[in-house]
Amino acid sequence: MLQQFDDRNTDIKVFINGVIVHRDAAAISPFDSVVQGGDAVWEGLRLYGGRIFRLQQHLDRLRSSAKALAFDDIPSVDTLASAIGATLDANGMHDGVHIRLTLTRGVKVTSGMDPRLNQSGPTLIVLAEYKAPVYDTGGLSLMTSSVRRFRPDMLDPKIHHNNLIQSILAKIEANAAGVDDALMLDDRGFIAETNATHLFLVHQGTVSTPRVVACPEGVTRSAVLEVCNRAGIDHCERDLSLTEAYRADECFCTGTMGELAAVTCIDGRVIGEGSVGTMTQRLSGLFGELVVREAEAVGDGVFSREP
Q1: Range of the domain at 52
Q2: For helices 77-91 and 55-68, what crossing angle results, to 10°?
Q3: Residues 181 and 82 in one domain
Q4: Interatomic CA distance for residues 180 and 265, integer angstroms
Q5: Whether residues 247 and 168 fall in one domain
Q6: Maximal C-alpha separation, the chain
Q7: Spatial separation of the C-alpha atoms in residues 205 and 277, rounded to whole Å
Q8: What is the pLDDT of residues 5-18, one digit of tens each?
Q9: What is the mean pLDDT of the segment spanning 100-109?
C-alpha cells in the first residue's frame, strides 16, 4: 500500500507563519526546532464538503500537546482555524482534502537542544493536499513489529509529537514483510496500535479497543466509541493480547487518514472470514452519518472560546 501522487497537488500553496507560498517555494529554517530535534506537534484533519470533522477536538489536542511540551506563545484556536481557512481558500479546496497542521517550538538563535534557545515563538505550518482515505477498504494485512510503544513514564503518547521514529521503524518492517502496516505492542506485550492507526477487535458482538496507555487519544477512535454507545453496541476499552486479535471475528483500524478500514490478516493468520465484517460495515456507515452531522465549518462561531 503506497500512496500515489495526485496531480492536483502539483501547484498547491502552503501556509508558513502567515505567509502562503507555492509548495516549491516553501521553506523551514535549519535552525527550526522541528529540524533540530523533531520538536513539534501536529494534527491530521479531513475536509468534507467544506467542513472539517471534529475540528475543535483536533485544535484542542494540538494546543494541549504544545502545552505539555512547554511551548511559548501557543496560537489560539481562532488563530489556528483562520490559518486553516486561509490555506483552503488560497487553494480553492472544498472536499476530499487532508490537512497536516504542524506547530514547532520555533527557530533557535543557534543550533542546540535547549528550549531556551527558542526566542522568537513557534512556527505554524498548514499543508492541505487532495487525498482520499489512504487504506484499501477490501481488507488490510498487518504484521507484529519488534518495535514497542512507550508507556507514559517513558514518553507519554498523549503528546501528539512529531518524533515518529518508532512508527517509521515499524513501517520499515512492514514494508520488508510485504504487508500494509505494522501492529505494535506496548512494553508488557499487549496491543497498543498500528504504526499509524488505532485498532479495534470484534468478538461475539463486542467491540474492543486498547486503553490509551501506549497509544494516543485518537479523534476517530473516540468517535467510534461514541457511535457504539449511541447505537447500543456492546463495547469496551481494555488490554488486548495478540491471541485475541488472531481469534477475533473482525478487526478494523481507525484514523483521520483512513477513516475505518478492515483488517483481514495479522501475522499470516486470516481474521474472521477474511473479508470486511458486518460490524465493520455497520460502524463505517454510522461514522459517515456522524461526519455529516458534526463536521464544522472553518471560521464559524465555534472558535470564539479559548480552551
Answers
A1: 7-132
A2: 120
A3: no
A4: 10
A5: yes
A6: 58
A7: 11
A8: 999 999 999 999 99
A9: 98
- The full 3-state SS of 92-120, as one line of letters, equals CCCCCEEEEEEEECCEECCCCCCHHHECC
Distance of alpha carbon 116 from alpha carbon 125, whole angstroms: 22
- With cell 447505537, the residue in question is 231
CATH number of the structural domain spanning residue 206: 3.20.10.10
Angle made by CA atoms 179, 252, 207, in degrees to the nearest 5:
150
- Overall size of the chain counted in residues: 307
Is the whole-model pTM more than 0.85? yes
- The whole-angstrom separation of Cα 292 and Cα 95 is 13
Angle at which helices 219-231 and 278-294 cross, to 10°? 110
- Of residues 146, 251, 246, 158, the one with CA closest to residue 195: 146
Q: Which residue has the cell 542546540?
A: 112
pLDDT digits (tens, 9 = 90+) for 71-94: 999 999 999 999 999 999 999 999
Residue whose C-alpha cell reads 489560539 in the numeric block: 76
Whether 255 and 176 map to the same domain: the answer is yes
| Cβ neighbours of 127 (radius 10 Å) | 19
Average per-residue pLDDT for the chain: 94
Has residue 131 got a pLDDT over 60?
yes
Three-state SS at 243: helix
127: closest CA among 197, 254, 42? 42
DSSP 268: T
| 194 neighbors 142 (Cβ within 8 angstroms) | yes
**Strands 97-104, 40-48: parallel, antiparallel or unpaired by DSSP?**
antiparallel
Question: What pLDDT does 39 receive?
Answer: 97
104 & 28 share domain: yes
Q: Whole-angstrom Cα distance, residue 11 to residue 261?
A: 30
